[in-house]
Amino acid sequence: MRKIAYLTPLYFADESYIGGGERHPTNLARGVAASGEGFSVELVSFGQKADYRQLAPGVGLRILPAARKPSNPLDVLSWDLPEAFADASLVHVHQAHTRCSEVGILVAKQLHKPICVTDHGGDSSRLGAYYGLTDLADRIVPVSDFSASFFQGRAPIEVIKGGVDVDTFTPPESPVERKYVLYVGRLLPHKGIDRLIQAVPSDMPLIVCGRPTNNAYFSHLNQLAAGKNVHFITDADDARIRELYRSAWVNVLPSVHRDYQGNYYAAPELMGFTTLEAMACGTPGIVSNLAGMPEFVRPGETGFVFDTIDELRERLIELVGDRDRVDALGRRAREVVVEEFSLEAAGRKMARLYDSLINANRPAEVAA
Amino acid sequence: MNILVLSYIYPPDAQGGYELGCKQAVDALRRRGHNVRVLTSTPRTPVRPEPHVSRKLHLTDIWYNATRPVSHPAVNQVWEVDANLFSSHNVHLLIQEIQDFQPDVVYVWMINGLGGLGLMGCLQYLGVPWVWHLMDEVPAMLCSNNWHVVPKLAQAFNRFISGHYISCSETMLRRIRAKGVILDGDVRLLPNWVTGRRPAPRTRFYNSGELRIVSAGRVTRDKGMDILVEAARILRDEGQTNFSVDVYGPIVDRSIPELVSRYSLESLVQFHGSIPQAELTRQLSEYDVFAFATEAREPFGFAPLEAAAQGCVPVITRSCGIAEWLVDGVHCVKVQRDARSFAHAIGDVLGGRIDLAPIGRRGQAAVWRDFSIDVIIPKIEDMLACAASSAQEASGDFDDAYRMAVIAERLAHAIVQEPFCA
Question: Do residues B249 and B358 lie in contact, with contact meaning Cβ atoms separated by under 8 Å?
Answer without folding.
Answer: no
